Amino acid sequence: MRGADGGPWRRLCALPTFWVGILYDEVSLQNVLDIMADWTAKERQMSRNKVPKTGLKPFRDGLLGHVAQDVLKLAKDGPERRGYKESGFVNVVAEAVRKGVVNMALVSQAGLTGTTNGHHRVFGLTYNIEVAVSFSSSSYHSTKKSRRGYRSIVAASPPTEAAVIATEPLTKEDLVGYLAAGCKPKEKWRIGTEHEKFGFEFGTLRPMKYEQIAELLHSIAERFDWEKVIEDDKIIGLKQGKQNISLEPGGQFELSGAPVETLHQTCAELNSHLQQVKAFTEEMGIGFLGIGFHPKWGINEIPVMPKGRYEIVTNYMPKVGTFGIDMMYRTCSVQVNLDFSSEADMIKKFRASLALQPIATALFANSPFTEGKPNGYLSMRSQIWTDTDNNRTGMLPFVFDDSFGFEQYVDYALDVPMYFIYRKKKYIDCSGMSFREFMAGKLPHLPGELPTLNDWELHLGTIYPEVRLKRYLEMRGADAGSWGSLCALPAFWVGLFYDEVALQNVVDMTADWTLEEKLMLRNKVTKTALKRHSEMDGLERRGFKESGFLNAVEEVARTGVTPAEKLLEMYHGEWTQSVDPVFQHILY
Question: Are 360 and 485 in contact (CB under 8 A)?
């Protein structure tokens, strides 16, 4: 799920909580499907396109606001049925839903409010920081400074850029089978959360240079025993177990978390990562910002990371859309990856998550500034996706066709233009050619050569719809935000989709939404955002005591006030029309 802007530390848990609450609870997932069953394609697209500019505002006391509150309750119920006590992570955004305004002050209040004997109070839950760090170390590697040095991986960023392994020529059935291999029984469902953040210099507020980012990566690797990822003798990321730290084109610092069982583990992992980063930031004079679109600097002030794939995509983007370069270099998001048990379960969750993606965008809207001024949107990051590259983005109306399944998604992906392939530790520009042509041996750069499953996996990672299918579903609709929102987003989706009751409620809720209505919601939320709560019930039925993670978003749903609107209020008030205070206000 890739639709959320970056944001402050305290909102980072809200996004995975949001999606976990919906997708990992059968009841919540079915409820979502019911909610949007009669939405038309036009309505889905409308909701997606409007959210970046208006957030929740035009829907106060209307369709979107009521749906958001219902969906949040579904997301909270799911984790409770899981039994992991995760639903509180969504609380960071709940106030915004209620008021229709993004309230970053509430985010701060809902976050870390003090310590007692090493314990922090987060979203009404007592959270032991030492336990969080020890979870990360026990699950992956020791967090003590390594005395045996570090290992380097001479390749591009894992996992999709691994060296190509020769296989037999692929068939379409192989590609379908690759996706179908993601089906797994419920007891093996996991939660994966990814979040991006902007680095900046304290003194100048300018973006971190690559040299500073490289120093930080080396420092983390050597003190906390991460493996270094090297491309052309330059460090471009880190790997530890199933966790990865990577660099987006403009230096956005991304953690791709390991698949974990509960939202408590998600937040422990996120907290451990941020603590490791913060171990070096003060002495280096740098900080990290949780927001969906860079608030101050123009595209020419953003550094370019030394990764071969980014040069190819940078050259291609202006040919296919208006905002592709901005998307690459000036946006940050939070994404949630969730599992499915079968093709039928994938279809149900895919449809429900597409229908509700505008709700997630509105709840987490957090990108109202561009180059020092309000940009007219509450989620500029989401708006940018409306004109980036329409061949590989959008609401995917065909997912709602009766014939949809793994094969239909393969047909779609086969015709999405490629960016590149990876051979001999180098990227080869194949921009504009389709994977279908590659399978026919028609790539001009490699005439007669046929693809492998590694090539297919790499290609799937270059497709950017609102919800992306790999061997799991990736929710992509939320801006980056505070620490709390990082747990709230997976709590939202897990509560809705990992609980049968919540999922059925979603299905029922959306059963009569037309495609036109779904598109309408998507289009409006970028500007108006939200103007109840199946996911909370789903989290409660999970039995993991996870519903508290939804506290970050519950107030957003209740009030309709999004984080972006609170930032705008401070901009026009106490900040005297300056965006500089935002760097301190939503600093991790």
Answer: no
Structure tokens, 282: 């003060």
Phi-psi domain of 74 (left: phi exceeds 0; alpha: psi -120 through 50; beta: other): alpha
Q: Is the separation of the CB atoms in 472 and 338 below 8 Å?
A: yes
Q: What pLDDT score was predicted for residue 135?
A: 29
Distance, C-alpha 471 to centroid of its chain: 16
Alpha carbon distances (Å) from 365 to 307, 316, 349, 562:
29, 28, 23, 6
Task: Quick: pLDDT tens for 513-565.
Answer: 888 888 877 777 777 666 545 666 777 777 777 777 888 788 888 888 999 99
Domain enclosing residue 14, as ranges: 4-585
pLDDT, one tens digit per residue, over 155-176 is: 444 334 344 444 578 999 999 9
Interatomic CA distance for residues 277 and 291, integer angstroms:
17
Reference 552, options 225, 82, 93, 98; nearest CA is 93
3-state SS assignment for residue 109? helix
Cα distances (Å, whole numbers) of residue 420 to 94, 321, 433: 41, 18, 9
CB of 526 within 8 A of CB of 326?
Answer: no
Enumerate the β-bridge partners of residue 246.
237, 254
- pLDDT surpasses 50 at 110: no
How far is it, in rounded angstroms, from Cα 55 to Cα 479?
A: 12
DSSP for 408-425 reads HHHHHHHHSBP-EEEETT
Q: What pLDDT is attached to residue 146? A: 36
CATH number of the domain to which 382 belongs: 3.30.590.20
Single-letter amino acid code for the residue at 539:
L
Comparing 540 with 434, the larger pLDDT belongs to 434
**Residue among 1, 2, 39 at smallest CA distance from 388:** 2
CA Rg value for the chain: 21
Q: Which residue has the higher pLDDT, 588 or 35?
A: 588
159 preceded by cis ω (within 30°)?
Answer: yes
**CA 247, CA 144: separation in Å to the nearest integer?**
24
pTM of the model: 0.80
pLDDT of residue 122: 33
Residue 350 has a CB neighbour count (10 Å cut-off) of: 23
What total of structural domains would you count in the chain? Answer: 1
CA-to-CA dists, residue 129 to 9, 146, 179, 266, angstroms: 14, 21, 37, 13
